[in-house]
Specification:
Number of strands: 11
Distance between the termini: 54 Å
Radius of gyration: 20 Å
CATH class: Alpha Beta
Strand content: 25-35%
Helix content: 25-40%
Shape: globular
Oligomer: single chain
Number of domains: 1
CATH topology: Rossmann fold
Largest sheet: 6 strands, mixed
Order of helices and strands: EEEEHEEHEHHHEHEHEEH
Amino acid sequence: MSVIELRGIKREYRMEGKPSSKTKKTSGSVVVVRALRGVDFCAEAGEFISVMGPSGSGKSTLMNILGCLDKPSGGTYNLDGIETSKSDSDTFAYIRNRKIGFVFQSFNLLSRTTALENVELPLFYRRRKHDEKKSSSASARKELAMTALKEVGLAERIDHFPSQLSGGQQQRVAIARAMVNDPAFILADEPTGNLDTGMTLEIMGLFQQLNDRGKTVIMVTHEPELAAYTKRIITLRDGELVSDVQVHERRNALDDLAQWKKDHVLLSEDK
């Protein structure tokens, strides 16, 4: 079953300026920037996909459309049975809250709230359809948040503030927050960009573990070594999807982490 189905997705921006190879001139001095030029893309439940491409390829634009942060200029986007392209603002808000778990490079945690409270936020602002029951009680929200934190290995850190956590632990809190509403998929934008090698491997190992349990993950990255930990790599160039490759022998991040720690100890001993 397809969780995500994009057909003929286009995104154009109108702006003033001189036309280039990626733009076309219209009347007056208005230039149309063609960020996406008819992208077709499907993702099945349980996939782990990386989206790659050079600067200006359309990665960020595609991520914004996948995350329902922006609407396409043309084409259709069906997310978990909902056609999003013509959705109103209330439906868009429902989709973002209930269907997508966001993980950002900068963590985006509230500094004055604990790990548990950060994870509870999507539940507190939980969107519902007209025929759904009211949001869960405070005790139910707390239980769901605690379960999510346990799933990312932070059961002992629920009362810690972001400043009391390492970068890797903060990203784990962000991942728990992304999962707490049981979304259709997790959308990660350069999730290890602010982390060192060890923490990067920890986070990639966590994504692999979550994916092995059935979570669908889409990760935007510019690093081929990170894409090697996913199951499928799609590549954009000049607003078009130019490559879609299955990774038959993906690397195991936790194995690489163990080797990195071993090498790190040996290097320390040689000093």
